[in-house]
Structures are given as C-alpha cells and as structure tokens.
Amino acid sequence: MCGNIIGIETDIVCIVVSLLILFTLQMSYQLKIQTRMFRSLLIWFSIFCFTGVLTHILPAGVVVFDRLTVCLKTITCSFIGYYWFTYTYYATGRNSYKLKKWAPIAIAPAIIVVIYGLVDFFTHISDETLYLSPFLWIIITITGSIYFLLAFFIAFKRNSQTTNPFHKCEYRYLSIIALIPL
Question: How many whole angstroms separate alpha carbon 81 and alpha carbon 109?
C-alpha cells in the first residue's frame, strides 16, 4: 500500500508542476510554435501522469482496467516523444517550413504506435489474463528512441554550429535532456 501512495503522490506532484508550467506559459509568453509544442508536450506528460494515478487507484487484477491504462500509457509515450522532437526542432531555430513539409513522416511512428496500441487493446479486451504484446513494447521503444535520438542530434548539431554562448548552453541542455529517457 505504501508503494501505491508514493506512486500516486509522485504522479500528482508531476501533474501539478507541469500544470503550473503550462499555465505560466499560457499567461506570460507569446504563442510561438516552439511554445505551442512545449505546451503540447506538457499536456501529454500530464495525461501520462494521470494514467499513472489511475494505475494505482483502479482495482488491481481487473484486466480491462489494466489494459486501458497500458493503452493510454502507450499513446501518451508516443506523443511525448514526438512533441519533444518537434519542440527541440523549433527551439533550435530550424526552418518551420521543412518540418511542416515532412510532418506526415515525422508523426507517422507515433500514429503507428497509437493504432497498434488501440488494436491490441480492443483485440485482447475480453482476455482473462493480462498479456502484454512484446511487439507493442518493441515499437514503443524504437519509436521513443528514434524521436529522442533525432532531438539529440539536432540539438548537438546546432550546438556545434553556433558561436553564441547563450545558444550553446541552451542547445547543450536540449541535447542532454534528450538523452535522459534513453
């Protein structure tokens, strides 16, 4: 029971902090595209943490609830990776036209994970035991790794190209933060 309380507490603190940052961004900054991407990242992170709270609150052993939380975590993880990549892309001052042109390809891995997660959820919804598809976890891992590695390489490349010390520091932080989930 103590583990559940600590898990709930941690997720609630993460939700509160991300919502505080979200409301601060809403009130004080312009709605540049990089700010919108960061706001979307915070929203998906809050949904992920809320799903973690549901994991601890919903009755254990009910396979439908377990499948629902796994499906929601799958969807949120794929979009967290996607929005971190797009935020890093725009925060490093890249040309927004290029990403808009390649947007269907950039979001395709996240959409594939969402579709496969939903299909897995609905095909196994009536199963007696919780069976987690290994292919689903492989797809999540590969997709997340691709998004975070691309964000790392974009920030690292911009760090090596710029001479402005402020931007160098910012790009260095972006590249380091992209490596943490890996």
Answer: 10
